[in-house]
Amino acid sequence: MFALGIAMVLAVALPISAQAQNVAQKSFIVEEIVVQGTHRIEQSTVRSYLLLQEGDNFDRRRVDQSLKSLFATGLFADVVISREGKTLFVKVVENPVINRIAFEGNKRIDEADLQKEVVLRPRVVFTRTKVQADVKRVLEVYRVNGRFGATVVPKIIQLPQNRADLVFEIDEGPLTKVERISFVGNKAESDSDLRSVIRTKETIWYRFLSSDDTYDPDRLTLDRELLRRHYLAEGFADFRVESAVAELTPDGKAFFITFSVNEGQRYKFGNIDVAAGLRGLNAKQLKALIKFKKGDEYDNTKVDGAIDKITDAVGNLGFAFVEVRPRVNRNRKEKIVDITFDIREGPRVFVERIDISGNVRTIDKVIRREFQIVEGDAFNAAKLRRSRQRIQNLDFFNKVNIQRLPGSTPDKTIVKVEIEEKSTGSLSFGVGFSTDSGALLDLGLRESNLLGRGQALSFNGTLAAEKSTVNISFTEPYFLDRDIAAGFDLYHVNQDLQDTRSYDFKKSGLGLRAGFQVAPFLRQNWRYKAEVSSIENVASSASSLIQAQEGKRYLSEVGHSLTYDRRDSRIAPTEGYVLKMINDLAGFGGNIRYLKNQLRAGQYYEVTDKWVLGLNGRVGHILGLDQDVNIADRFFLGGTTLRGFKSAGAGPRDISTDDSLGGEWIYNGSLQLRFPLGLPAELGLSGRIFSDFGSLGQVNPSTSSIKDSGSIRASAGAGIGWVSPFGPMNIDFGFPLAKESYDKTELMRINFGTRF
């Protein structure tokens, strides 16, 4: 009977009329109903689905409806209703119960991922409908992963007691690549330009590390939106994507994708105005925040940026319930867009709840403490944007999406936070080469989100020809559940400086630090450092100033810094600025006493898409307190701080020994333009052109052999950065534009590391 039932499951069900063919047509009173074939299912359950009961007049239509009702339960593989005299016999074949679900042939997709997609589970009743639905779900998983030739065949393995194992036999098929991407209707933008905008890419040999060259319908939807954003940023306010068609080749191995676009005409900005409908707002001051003007090319991203800036400015003035809406008027005849930013009082809305999802490892508290609004606060869009940026700055997540959802009442809103975690721990062993240190071995162990609590713990060790280091660091970002980042550092450095300063330098120390937010964008940090260092193996030919400082020293230093950061990102800034003041005072014990002050600044501009101009500068001074400044505490210039010059290659020098002596004051800066090279983003290549400048001076005591002009040094050059699968690589070519005859220069700097 069981074998017969399984066969019937896989066969086409017999027509209901055929199953009831043995039922007499004439009317009679049903005296008895007999249920046959039940094992797991109670007979009363079968009777409950019948529309005929004992004592009822026989009705053929009700018999047919009873059959339909029983089949609809999904409990039975077959049902037959027949008559003997005035007795109705209901014979059923129960569907088996699934004992186990397995997958065979899946190599590219883990079984655990497939198990998540299927609905059927062990101890669930088998039905053909559910199996076919699961087959479709599994095929969809393979399609999303670019395997449109995949096939899935469900197989039933019969077991005693009406149980069965369900096995999905999978033929994954070849990876279906995107062979060609074409555009129809584009005149202002070339096909190659548009291909660089969208995520989907044509297959080519170097894309073996990427999946963007496989067809994905969801990615195609994203591509339509990316095209729309691109054209709106280029001034095409009427742009639309007419269609996006993916055609599978006859052999099923590749896709041809065609985008049909309607560019429309290009617009310029017309009249730009701000309508401040709230008392206390100065429309003229708010208009000054808008960085575009009449006659500029229309750019929708600039409009969105202006809305954010106006919203932030109004929010900082204490207006919590404000809406900034652009009124756009297109003049197709003159090809201009007039925009009025209308500022009006919005609905009074309060935060009812903040829901966080996607954090499997990171505890909620780590995310919630970065919010600048809490449940019960007035909703503030500016604070919400800053909260999102603070969460991104943690660098724990690949994606951070924040949405507003309706609350339980019209005056309440729910803030929904969806995150996607990324790996925050790393264990690395590397080999490489550095211009400063030569060949090196590197061992690193780091966890920036320890136990999901946001704590950072790291160990780093470097062994190189001219430098070896060991460092252990720990940071608690919210010490005692307060907005105070506290931590410590243990370190040891052994440095060979014979080539530049004719001595070896060692130092070991302990550092304690704590920092807290003073105001929005303003952070204060305090630190203490206890250090033992020594100048050793001083060459007999070394400068007399260096020979006089040979031996051990003991440092006890208190440091302070104040940082005002308005960059859009601490990790990869594209706009904004940062100011930092640093003060260090040594002399609280030990035998070293000085006061060191520095001021650093950086400004970033996104010139155009992915072209970022950065300006960075520093001024510094160190003052010995009743003693000369030790050479190890002075400023040095060159290498990464002044490309085109060797490390410590610029500044005061003892020309009789060729030793670099450093300086007690310094200023240096850099102007750098970072840009893409026009190659696929997955290659990780970027270019840069730069100009560095700076100077340092003042050595005490001084002798006649010491050259200390204090003149400005400058250089210019270009470089390439490669974020490779094997580690970062940077090559810079620098050419001195202004130097002294005793300075040491270098044409090329290379830093390369491999991690495995």
Polypeptide structure, described:
This protein has 756 residues and is an alpha+beta fold. The chain folds into six domains: 2-94, Ubiquitin-like (UB roll) (Roll); 97-171, Roll (Ubiquitin-like (UB roll)); 177-262, membrane protein fhac (Ubiquitin-like (UB roll), Roll); 268-345, Ubiquitin-like (UB roll) (Roll), CATH 3.10.20.310; 350-421, Ubiquitin-like (UB roll) (Roll); 497-755, membrane protein fhac: a member of the omp85/tpsb transporter family (Porin, Beta Barrel). 17% of the residues lie in helices and 45% in strands. It contains 14 helices and 34 strands. The strands form seven sheets. Strands 16-17-18-19-20-21-22-23-24-25-26-29-30-32-33-34 form a 16-stranded antiparallel barrel. Strands 1-3-2 form a three-stranded mixed beta sheet, sandwiched between helices. Mean pLDDT is 84; it is low at 1-25.
Salient structural properties:
single chain, Ubiquitin-like (UB roll), 756 residues, disordered N terminus, elongated, alpha+beta, 45% strand, three-stranded mixed beta sheet, 14 helices, 6 domains
Furnish the topology, listing elements before pairings:
Layout (H helix, E strand, L loop, with lengths): L1 H9 L5 H4 L12 E5 L6 H6 L11 H13 L3 E9 L2 E8 L2 E8 L6 H7 L10 H17 L6 E9 L3 E9 L5 E8 L6 H7 L19 H17 L6 E9 L5 E9 L5 E9 L6 H5 L12 H17 L5 E10 L4 E10 L4 E8 L6 H5 L12 H13 L3 E10 L5 E10 L3 E10 L3 E13 L4 E10 L2 E10 L7 E13 L1 H4 L2 E16 L2 E15 L7 H4 L3 E15 L10 E15 L3 E15 L2 E14 L28 E2 L4 E2 L4 E12 L8 E13 L8 E2 L5 E12 L2 E12 L9 E8 L1
